[in-house]
Each structure stands twice: as C-alpha cells, then as structure tokens.
Amino acid sequence: MSRVLFYTRYERIWHWAQALGIILLLLTGFQLHYPDKFPLFGSLTNAVKIHGIIGFLLLLNAFLGFFYTVTSNKIHQYIPIPKDFTRGMFEQARYYVWGIFHGEPHPFEKTVHKKLNPLQKITYFFLLNLLLPFQIVTGVLLWSASSYPDFMDRFGGLLVLGPLHTIGAFLFLSFLIVHIYLTTTGHTPLDYMKQMITGYGHVPDNSQE
After folding, report:
1. Percent of the chain with pLDDT over 90
2. How far apart are CA 185 and CA 198, in angstroms?
3. Of 15, 41, 104, 200, which residue is most buried, by most CB within 10 angstroms?
4. Which of 1-5, 54-58, 99-103, 171-175 has the weakest average pLDDT?
5. pLDDT at residue 11, rounded to an integer
C-alpha cells in the first residue's frame, strides 16, 4: 500500500466546519421545538439568534466550498454519470447491505481523483442541489418573519414553512447518521475518519494512482 494525500488542508477544515455547523443547527433547532427538554443554549431568544447566525455562516461556507470545488477542477467528482444510476448504484448498495458483511472487496476503488462511489455521488448531488437549497430558502423565509411577515405569508406562513423546514432538518439528521456509519466501512473502522483528520490514506501499489 502507498500513502497518498486524499484531502487538502482546506478540504478538511471546510468539512469539519460544515459538520460542526450542521450539528449546532440541529441542536438549536431541537431547542426551538422542545425548549423544556433541550435548554442547551440558555433562553429561547439565544437559540433563535445562534440558529440564524450559524445558518448564514454555513451558507457562506457552502458558497466557499462550491467556489473551491469549481476553481480547483474537482467538481466532476460530485457529478454522477449515467452508469452511476444503473449498475454502479446497485452494486454499491449491494455491497453495503451484503458484501461488506461477507468479506467481499469494495466494488469501486477510491482514488485521489475519484473519491466518491456511485451511491455517494448520487446522494451528494441531490443533497447539494435539492435539500440544501430547500433548507436555505425555507430558513431565510422563516428568519425574515419578524421583519417581513407579509412576504413570508405569501409562501404559506409559519404553519407551512415551519413543518417543511423541520422535515428538511430531519432529512439532514438522517444523512448525518448514515454518513457517520459509512465512515466505518473503510479498510479499518477508523480509516476514513483518519483520512479526514490527517488528509492521508492508502491505495494499493498497483492502483491507477
């Protein structure tokens, strides 16, 4: 096995900043819905302020990540190709539910220039292009409620936007749980975690890298 750099320093910092931001949004969101059970950030007013600040910081971080991915010519790694939706997706899904528990080799080799398998590419594609914009739009509309209530009412008001934003939050929570589990599916249970901390991983000596 040869040791190679999978993730640059910026990519690692961006990843952990995004992860921390999402966790803080989920925690403050839980307090907004259940203030008696999750009084983690003091008053409800504090939770609202922190939720809004973290939301806008994550939006800025997402824009910086998109800019970096485009300018570094790495965006192609996140764009699924037609065969990812057919053979590739099903092979990867079979590996996760069957092959990994029976000692089968991973169907797709991870390399520096192809870090995501077909199922990951499809997941990130819909996450970044559908779920993230959905959360941003509903979140900004809810944030504007106190200043522009009439504008928010055009989209259904709190009774519509509140549940929609909450559904999106639980989808993000589901993704986070699955994402954490899948970090244990490397050569060792902590292999992928170490890669995102140190940036380095290993590929076979006969790898195309």
Report:
1. 58
2. 18
3. 41
4. 1-5
5. 94
Quick check: 207 and 109 in contact, CB under 8 A?
A: yes
C-beta neighbour count of 92 within 10 angstroms: 21
Predicted TM-score (pTM) of this structure: 0.86
Question: pLDDT tier at 117 (50, 70, 90 boundaries)?
Answer: very high
- If 0-12 CB within 10 Å is exposed, 13-18 middle and 19+ buried, where does residue 158 land? middle
Identity of the residue numbered 93? A
Residue for token pair 């403050």: 28
DSSP string, the chain: -EEEE-S-HHHHHHHHHHHHHHHHHHHHHHHHH-TTT--TTSSHHHHHHHHHHHHHHHHHHHHHHHHHHHHTT-GGGGS--GGGGTHHHHHHHHHHHTGGGGTPPPSS--BTTB-S-HHHHHHHHHIIIIIHHHHHHHHHHHHTTTT-HHHHHTTTHHHHHHHHHHHHHHHHHHHHHHHHHHTT-SSSTTHHHHHHHHSEEEE-TTS--
Q: Is the pLDDT of residue 82 over 60?
A: yes
